Amino acid sequence: EVAEIALTSAQGDVVTLVVDMATKLPTAQRYNQQTPFGAIPVEVRFHDYRDVDGLKISFRQELKTSVSLLTSTTTRFDINAEVDATRFAMPGSDRVVNLDDKASIEAADAKADAKADAKAP
Question: Which of 2, 12, 40, 51 places its Cα 20 to 30 Å from the Cα of 83?
Fold first, then answer.
């Protein structure tokens, strides 16, 4: 047995969440995807739930439309994984932007703006 829950955004977009009543896990979600050709119905199904640090995570998802079926498989899911700060370095720079420091972000933005202004005609 499943329950279908309609979730509506402030803009009126609706996503229907399908929940397995026995496990209380989502089995699917449905929505209309806007395209240049109009709205296309989309259904995403969730499979292969596994425990990851006390959370149930779907390791396989299928996205189905009237013209395609896309399967996504997760091979690894780490919660609060350590990430090397150098991954956040500005391209072409050895400078690292600290995303927790507003001044660091503003300085990086100002540097990027100045560089763009210098290239402008």
Answer: 51
CA–CA gap between residue 49 and residue 46 (Å, rounded)? 8
How many Å apart are CA 62 and CA 70, to the nearest integer? 6
Give per-residue pLDDT as tens, 4-28. Answer: 999 999 999 999 999 999 999 999 9
φ and ψ of 60, to 5 deg = -140, 130
Q: How far, in Å, CA of 61 to CA of 4, rounded?
A: 18
| CA 61 – CA 71 distance, rounded (Å) | 6
Half-sphere exposure of residue 90: CA atoms within 13 angstroms, side-chain side: 16
Residue ranges covered by each domain of the chain: 2-73, 85-119
Give the Cα separation of 22 and 46 in Å (integer): 15
In this structure, are residues 56 and 50 in contact, taking their beta carbons and an 8 Å threshold?
yes
Q: pLDDT at residue 102 above 80? A: yes
Structure tokens at 42: 């989309």
Which residue did the predictor score with more confidence, 62 or 90? Answer: 62
Is residue 44 within 8 A of residue 61, CB to CB? The reply is yes
